[in-house]
Amino acid sequence: MFEGISEALTLAGAERGLTLRDLLARTAVFVYGTTAATNAIITGRTARTAFLTTEGFGDTLVLREGGKLHPFDFRAAYPKPYVPRRLTFEVRERITSEGEVLVPLDEERLRATVAAVGALEVEAVAVSLLWSIVNPVHEEAVAAVLDEELPGIPYTLSHRLNPIIREYRRASSTAIDASLKPLMQRHLRQMSDDLHGAAFDGELLVVSSFGGVLDLDDVAGRPIYSVNSGPAMAPVAGQVYAGGEANAIVCDMGGTSFDVSLIRDGYIKFTRETWLGGVFTGHMTGLSSVDVKSIGAGGGSLVRLDAGGLLQVGPESAGADPGPACYGRGASRPTITDCALVLGLLDPTGFLGGRMRLDEEAARRVLSDAIAGPLGVPVEEAALAALDVLSQNMLGAIEEITVKQGIDPRRTVLVAGGGAAGFNAALIGHWLGCRATLFPALAAALSASGGILSDMVFSDARIRYVRSDAADPHVISGVLDELAASAARFLAEAGGPARTSVDYWVEARYPQQTWEIEVPLAWPTVDGKADIGRLVEDFHKAHATLYAVADPASPVEFIAWRVRASAGHGQASDTRSGSVAAPETPARRRIWLGSWTEVDVNELAAIASESSLIGPAIVESPFTTIFLPPRMRARRLASGTIEVTA
Predict the structure, then answer these.
(1) HEC-encoded secondary structure of 197-263
(2) Over 80: is that where the pLDDT of 577 sits?
(3) How far apart are CA 441 and CA 522, in angstroms?
(4) For residues 246-278, b (16+ Cβ closer than 10 Å) or e, as one string?
(5) Is 620 within 8 Å of 606 (Cβ atoms)?
(6) Cβ contact 191:160 at 8 Å
(7) Which of 4-18, 166-180, 357-371, 577-591 bottoms out in mean pLDDT, i.e. has the lowest?
(8) φ and ψ at 364, to 5 degrees?
(9) Contact in structure between 603 and 575 (CB atoms under 8 Å)
(10) Theoretical Cys-Cys bridge with 25: which of 2, 35, 199, 597, CB 3.0 to 4.6 Å?
């Protein structure tokens, strides 16, 4: 795994006249992102894991939450649980929702169960007992027996990892985390050893799924934090590049997927509905993570005709091998990259800064064979239609997280990143009516720059049921004091960061309502009935914003209290690209806009700060191409960002 990283670092060092060892020796912070955990889950290469739960609840991972997208489709196979039923064991004990011991832990029977677990040669153990989030005494007792009987076998306790109500979500996160520990602990330890062996002596941080970076030991102890962590970094970068805008749509379009997320009222949007695989058929992480919607739409997405002769784009992708047909590796099916080349959006001799030559004839041939020929249209029209279908798919994904959640896109900016976003992001921003579409200087590496821009983050929670019409302010203050102390310990351990922030939320609902919503706390203390009244009012407003309805006469149930702290060390002081002297006259290239049209081609690094361009035009860098539609204006800001407006 280090070979690919070292090759990239060697190239980066060579551009600065440094060897790999010199570059790493001068590096203070190394931010590492990996898909190892996600890939292990998808491919089924996680550890052999046992699941221990309360007697009578052995089917928690089997039954899940009972949902089904297509309730009348009886052909679908029932999804397999994350941990097989044969590796699920029931523990005789019971804690009530009030934290009382209803059935004492049967330790003799527990030891027999643990012995059976050991005989099955499991590599990890997940422990999720009912209501351990209120009273963890039995889970801690199970941990003591595991330490004694199965030394060296990693385990995860649900109340430590994810103290939430709803046993399936807590059990699922616990099982996923435990199953990843052997793999990820080896993986991260090896990465650390390789880096230090190559002269790195700085701080090694790992990106997480909840919009920040963590110390390597923290991720090794809770590897589920690294699942789906890559897409979570794009909104972190988008929040910075949005330039202080309170509401922003952040898009990241690479070779395979189109990821879209939202900055709302200055906050990155989070969700607990993260599924690995299909909704209801996959496995839920159960953790609060950055809300990212992904669809199969990228530069490598395959273009095809379905059985009815309709043009379709994605979700299948050509991947890295063979990749698009224009890569010259023998691919026989067209992709969006092939379409962009046929339309003239890409320079066949300047791809990747001239390091790779594209085969335009191969792109035309596969498009003709698969699309243009069967439809009886010119190859250029087929390519343009494919881009239009792609754009409509992307619009649908954006509307899911904006219009359908009460956000007016006209009150947002669109931050576009990823190597393929420049093909159509300006046009999409215009269709949505966004105030501007922003292409950061490092747009092609939006998620990677998000990792560099991220703060170290910490979160903690307390489950404490309080009803507004019978609330004791001292109870709430006590919970918030505990969370404040927890956040203070984290900030102290962070070693005097240059900037800090601490935010509080409460998860609340109306009585008999199934799901809670998160409500930010404008202040970290509750001193009296007036503060509770303001909190209730904030809940009603948040509910009306999300669902367009509120019930001000109803009491409110507060379920979980949360804190999120961040510590930044200023490690990302400058992420702008360099600049070069602009040529006296821009290059020219023909592109297809219904007919062949000659347009200016501007090198991104040569565009002067605060200068403007009028479309149609092309803006190129070694890593991305931005198409500026007719009559739209592009301006390079002092930060290096390209701002496109109508």
Answers:
(1) HCCCCCEEEEECCCCCEEEHHHHHHCHHHHCCHHHHHHHHHHHHHCCCCCCEEEEEECCCCEEEEEE
(2) no
(3) 35
(4) ebbbbbbbbbbbbbbbbbbeebbbbbbebebee
(5) no
(6) no
(7) 577-591
(8) -65, -40
(9) no
(10) 199
pLDDT tens, position by position, 519-563: 999 888 888 888 899 999 999 999 998 888 999 999 999 999 999
Domain 38-187 has CATH 3.30.920: no
Is 143 buried (19+), middle (13-18) or exposed (0-12) by CB count in 10 A? middle
The encoded tokens of residue 292 equal 């990212």
CA–CA separation, 8 and 191 (whole Å)? 15
Domain ranges in the chain with CATH number 3.40.50: 38-187
3-state secondary structure of 530: helix
Look at the block and give the residue holding tokens 């500026």.
Answer: 628
CA-CA distance, 128 to 347, in Å (whole number)?
56
The phi and psi torsions of 104 (rounded to 5 degrees) equal: -60, 150
User: Are the beta carbons of 394 and 297 closer than 8 angstroms?
Assistant: yes
- Distances in whole angstroms, Cα of residue 594 to Cα of each of 373, 380, 385: 18, 8, 11
Relative to beta strand 596-603, strand 617-620 is: parallel
Amino acid found at 427:
L
Contact 30, 242 (CB under 8 A): no
Would you state the torsion angle of the CA atoms of residues 387, 392, 396, 398, taken in this order, to the nearest 10 degrees? 60
Kindly state the helix (H) or strand (E) to which residue 91 belongs, with its residue range: strand 88-91
What would the two tokens of residue 522 be? 């404008």
Q: What angle do CA 457, 461, 464 make, to 5 degrees?
A: 165
Calpha distance 376→382 (Å, rounded): 9
Q: What is the CATH number of domain 455-568?
A: 3.30.1490
User: pLDDT per residue over 234-271, tens digit each?
Assistant: 999 998 899 888 899 999 988 888 899 999 888 888 88
CA–CA separation, 594 vs 477, rounded Å?
65
Report CA-CA distances (Å) from 173 to 39, 41, 272, 420. 16, 12, 11, 33
Q: How far apart are the first and last CA of the chain?
A: 45
To the nearest 10°, report the CA torsion of 302, 308, 310, 316: -20
The C-alpha angle 460, 462, 463, rounded to 5 degrees, equals: 140
Q: How far is it, in rounded angstroms, from Cα 50 to Cα 85? A: 9
- HEC letters along 552-616: CCCCCEEEEEEEEEEEECCCCCCCCCCCCCCCCCCEEEEEECCCEEEEEEEEHHHCCCCCEEECC
- Alpha-carbon distances of 531 from 430, 472, 536, 559, 597, rounded to whole Å: 43, 11, 9, 17, 63
Count of other CB atoms within 10 angstroms of residue 477:
17
